[in-house]
Structure formats: structure tokens, C-alpha cells
Write a structure and sequence with these properties.
The chain has 215 residues and is of the alpha+beta class. It is built from 5 helices and 9 strands. It has a single domain, classed as 3-methyladenine DNA Glycosylase, Chain A, CATH 3.10.300. The chain binds a DNA duplex (13 and 13 nucleotides) through strand 4, strand 5 and helix 5.
DNA sequence: TGGATGATCAACT
DNA sequence: GTTGATCATCCAC
């Protein structure tokens, strides 16, 4: 983050219609947008730099593959533009954005953020230390992975189902300038069990951004 | 710089 | 009882 960027922030919340598309399209559209967690008047903001699409019934990597519908996956079947937050490996939370119309269980996993505002607070949630106490490697590691960014932004189970067009956790675009970047399309991460689906090019990231989790 | 491993729990078999 | 949309740590090279 630098002060020039901060002074240029002019955030405009995305409305429901933005999310009414399939997860691959939504993935690409989410790159470069700003995820905001507003808590106690303080804002934690990260730019979305890496995402993955999970395409539902036909996608062997998706929790909703073959129409699987459980308490955990239920929000993916609901209204688009809500958060799907789940516990992974008993240790970390992952944040997804529910895509497509109600009844179609697709989602976009947010895999990495570039910290834009509130890094001092993120450092405390993530490492229990002040930002100035962190090593250089720890600063890059604040938000460069799906579990890491949830810890840094204090996103936990209570945010499952949260309406991302609301006031607590939401996604914005920056109206002040149009950013230029290339999008890299490649394989998703951590889905070796998913047979042919493991090769689908449904991970997208902003080329050359240092906060991308895996190049 | 990269491979192996353990943490820890909900979903599923 | 096994596995997983992860991560930090340890150890070899």
C-alpha cells in the first residue's frame, strides 16, 4: 500500500446484478475489486488478486459436485452475492463469493488479496504483532492465500451467508481510476482428488502481482 | 528452494 | 476411520 493509492480510493459497492453470472465469469470480474471488512468503524481493505471458480454440479472439485447439498454447502444454493465461508483442514477458513442464480450452486474462492488499508490491524489478527514488528516475509504472507486472508481480515464462521451487498463485509470497485493488468488463467490449487477437473483452467490471477499465492 | 509432516475438525464412508 | 478448495515448520540439498 502507498499513500497515493489510499488517497485515490473512491469505493462504490457492487450490486446484486454483478454476481448474477457463472463462477468463471464472476472470477475474472472480481479481480482488481476491493474486499472490505468494516468493523467498529475501522475498515480492512484488500484488493482481490487471485481467485478460483467452482462450477457446481459438473465440477468434481466443487463442494456442490453432483448436487451435493448439506448444511455446509447450503448457502451456495441460495441468492448470489452472499459469502460462503467454510472451515478447511480443521484449521483455517476460506471465503467464497456465491455466483449465479438461486438454485445453482457455484462460487468463487478468494485466494489472495493485496492489502490496501488496515495493514496494521491485519498484522495483529494474523500474527498477534504490530505491523512494524513483522519481517518482510511476514508482510507478503499477510494475505497471499485463502486461509491467510481470512485470518488477516478476521473472517470466520459467523460470516457464512453474509450478504456482500450489505454493510459488514462487502465488495467494491474503485471509481477513481481504471487499473490496467493482464489476467493469467491456470489450474486450480489443492484439488488432486478431482480427476480431470484438476486440470481445468479455472484459477485466475493478476499477472506480476506479488501477493498471488502460487505463480 | 523444495519436499515431508503435523495441526485439527466437519463431512462423508 | 479417512479425507480435505491450507499453512507453518523442519530438514535436506
Amino acid at each position: 500500500m502507498n499513500s497515493d493509492l489510499k488517497s485515490q480510493l473512491d469505493l462504490s459497492r457492487l450490486d446484486r446484478s454483478f454476481y448474477s453470472k457463472n463462477a468463471v465469469k464472476l472470477s475474472k470480474d472480481l479481480l482488481g475489486k476491493y474486499l472490505v471488512h468494516s468493523m467498529d468503524g475501522k475498515e480492512l481493505i484488500g484488493k482481490i488478486v487471485e481467485v478460483e471458480a467452482y462450477m457446481g454440479v459438473g465440477d468434481k472439485a466443487a463442494h456442490s459436485y453432483n448436487g451435493r447439498r448439506t448444511a455446509r454447502t447450503e448457502v451456495m444454493y441460495g441468492e448470489e452475492g452472499h459469502a460462503y465461508v467454510y472451515l478447511i483442514y480443521g484449521m483455517y477458513y476460506c471465503l467464497n463469493v456465491v455466483a449465479a442464480k438461486e438454485g445453482i450452486a457455484q462460487a468463487v474462492l478468494i485466494r489472495a488479496l493485496e492489502p490496501i488499508k488496515g495493514s496494521e490491524i491485519m498484522a495483529v489478527y494474523r500474527y498477534g504483532k504490530a505491523l512494524g514488528e513483522l519481517k518482510k516475509s511476514q508482510i507478503i504472507n499477510l494475505t497471499n492465500g485463502p486461509g491467510k486472508l481470512c485470518k488477516a481480515l478476521n473472517i470466520e464462521k459467523e460470516y457464512n451467508g453474509e450478504d456482500l451487498t450489505g454493510n459488514r463485509l462487502f465488495i467494491c470497485e474503485n471509481r477513481s481510476f481504471k487499473e490496467e493488468y493482464d489476467i493469467v488463467e491456470t489450474k486450480r490449487i489443492g484439488i488432486d482428488y478431482a480427476q480431470e477437473a484438476k486440470y481445468f483452467p479455472w484459477r485466475f490471477y493478476i499477472k506480476d502481482n506479488p501477493y498471488v499465492s502460487v505463480k
